[in-house]
Amino acid sequence: MKRAWRKLGLIFCPSGEEPWMQSHAAVPIAESLGGHLFRVYFSSRDASNRSFTGSLVIDIREPDRILDLSRSPVLSPGELGGFDDSGAMATWLVSHQERSFLYFQGWNLGVTVPFRNSIGLATGTGGTFTRYCRGPIVDRSMHEPHFCATPCVLPGEDVWRMWYLSCTEWRMQEGRPQHRYHIKYAESHDGINWRRDGVVAIDFSGSDEYAISRPSVLRDPDRWRMWYSFRGPSYRIGYAESPDGIKWERRDGEAGIDVSPSGWDSEMIEYPFVFDHEGQRYMLYNGNGYSRTGFGLAVWESD
Q1: Region 224-234 average pLDDT
Q2: Which of 106, 139, 140, 294 is 20 to 30 A away from residue 113, measured at CA?
């Protein structure tokens, strides 16, 4: 039986509620608070286009009704000259041994290229976080010379696993630098120190595809599943399967979700976060303008 995502509608789009929340609600992350309540973390921008991480609370049964909206950011841009001085965008949350690990993407503005990203970590409980360290835990290296970003992290009994964006090059397109990045795989014993062996999880499908990002991985009893963003002319959501979480087969035609005929997600659809609750599978995702129109929710069900 064919299954697909049924869209439940737009959940939230900032409209200047706070100085640090002038626009955008990117890369949403769901955290269960018990019962049917979820805290959703998202990245907004201030008037200077710097990224901040905020949060809100919803009841999954009435997701379009916001029960609480943070008035102070969960994460703000870091110190001058730091890896995150132009933005701190949370991208993944892990709970492990009564401690929460909030992985975030630090932004630096560039000169020869528009920006550089790296991966930072904040830890805490109850929705309050402090930076684990002043610097990134995953950054450019001898073998990854450009940037890394948008990690998905799953702890395990034997090993922690990370799937993350890895930039392979910048190239000039119509007189402007254009990034090219795909998704790689890494492992760790503690979720902090990562071994990167250059394993590519999701590669480009052709020369016209230049951006693959925001992996969201679930381990089902029979296989691993991943939803992610990929882009040629505009973003769409892709899908892949794996027997071991390392070697993946792209099956984008089975993603089960696409742009709408009109409205906030009619031009592009990207940055999925997939999670389970009481036997149902849900997806948070962004739409037009790289999240300028906010984020929505969909549920996985039979046609």
Answers
A1: 95
A2: 294
